[in-house]
Each structure stands twice: as structure tokens, then as C-alpha cells.
Amino acid sequence: MSSDVLSQNEIDALLSALSTGEMSADELKKEEEEKKVKLYDFKRALRFSKDQVRSLTRIHENFARILTTYFSAQLRTYVQISVVSADQVPYEEFIRSIPNMTILNVFEVPPLNGRILMEVNPNIAYSMMDRVMGGKGTGINKVENLTEIETKIMSNLFERAFENLRDAWSNIADIDPFLAEFEVNPQFLQMVSPNETVVVISMNTTIGETSGMINICIPHVVLEPIIPKLSVSYWMQTKKTERLPEEITNIEKRVKKADLPITAELGTSSISIEDFLSLSIGDVIELETCIADPLVVKIGEIPKFTGQPGKVNKKLAVQIIDTMKGGDEDDE
User: Domain of life here (predicted)?
Assistant: First the structure.
């Protein structure tokens, strides 16, 4: 319900206040005439419209489904990933909201400028690594003590996972993501200025009995060149593509060289199943077509021509004498 609409209790309380003198009509009118000021925090500049944020949400819902399939195959266990929120916040606020020690994968997405951050909850990351190494998928948190082998396994796993973003973004940009940096301490990571607006897509991840969040942080500088493609008008418009003359010529050449089954039908006849079962070599079946009637020539299963039988170089042949319309086709 809209905040401008009063409930019945609020209406009764207002009428009661007017009738008892607690509030006068002049005071009420004066309050309505006062200017309503909406505070705007320049440190939390909203640089994306709600429409654009919804478009990013739809794109990453598709990405979450792709990741679900990818991780289920890689880890050979139950995996469920779904988008729970998409918000635009200052980069500094996002960094403060994630754990002090976590899994941070920084990706570059050429040809777009800037970097995208994938933050993975340590419990989820260790559960994935445990499954890859043959364990049950137990989630623990000891990020500060990562060994070189564990770091390599995790970075390889998430790098291959993030490559699926190419398919999810295919409608808005042709990107080639690759892992540029792997970090565990957010304080050592400075992708953009603290006040830069970023879009944070949070995905709830469940692996077996372990659950946690995967956050994707996309700075405004990355999305700036493709922002027009995030509008509803771009998604709803239909582009009419005209074929080049060379393409039409190539198609015509391929169609002309296509093989078609051609059948010359001598005639038809109807017999009983009993007669059919008793047929033997040498038996004669009387056709319903006269010897002087033209033959029906079929292209595939559709009658297209009439013809007459004959021989060419001692081989049986059919001479086309006319065209006809057959089946449900009206084209000759």
C-alpha cells in the first residue's frame, strides 16, 4: 500500500484530533503547505536507474543458473545458486560489508575498462575445494592460512566458473573475462575510488549442507559504455536485419545444389490383405491407371509434375510434360 494512503485507523485518529481540538484545520493546512525536502547523499550517488538494475538482475539470474550447472558438474554434488539482491552502493561501503578475510577474485573483462570483483564466502570456497580434492564438502574458514596449492586450486576453479559470464552477458557485450588477481584481504584491494558507485549482485549458494554468499561487484566505469543496452527499450526492440546480396546469392547456390528425392508413380491399386500375403514371384497386379494416362512425378511426397515413360540410352526415363499442384502446397 502506498505511504500516501491513510488507513481507517489513521483517518479515525485524525478526525478525533480535529474534533477534540488537539489539532486545528489551519495547522493541518499549514503542514501540508510546507515543502517536503528529500535528503540526498552525494556520497551515495545513484548512477543506475531501477530499470537498469532490474536488467542486471535478470542477466545475473541467468548467470546463477549457468553456475549451478557448472559447479554441480565440477563438484559432483547438489549445488543451488540464486540471486537474492542487486543494489548500488559506494565501493567503500561494499568493502566494509564483507568479511576481513575472504576469497576475492578480481577479473578483467576486455574490451570493457575496469575490473569486476567476485567475493566468495570462505565456507563456500573451502567446501568447493574439499569436494574437488575428494572430500565430503566440509566448509571451514582458515583463509589466512591458505597454502600455495589451495590458492591455485581455488583460483583455477573460480576462473573457469567466471568464464561463464561471457554467455550470460552475450546480449549486452562480447567480453573475454580472465582472472587478474587473487586476494584474501579486502584492505589490500583497491579497484576504484572509495566513493565510486558499484552494483553488487548477491547470490545465495548452497553446496550440500553448506551455504553462504557469492557477491559480484561491478563498478560503474565497467558498465558505462553499455548502459544504454540495459534499458527495457533495448531489450524489447526488434532489429530487422537485411541480408546482403552476396548472402542471398550464396543461399540460392546452395539451394540449387540440394538433393531432392524424385519419384515417378506408375499407378496405384487396392488389394486385400489376404491377397497381399499370398503374392509370389510372377504374379501380376492390375493398376487403376490406363496405359495412356500420364505418370505422376513427386518431389518428396508432393505431386509436382506429370510425365510419360520412355528410354534414354537404353535406360528407363521420364519426360516432364506439365506441372501440377499437389498436397497442401500452392507453389509450383
Answer: Bacteria
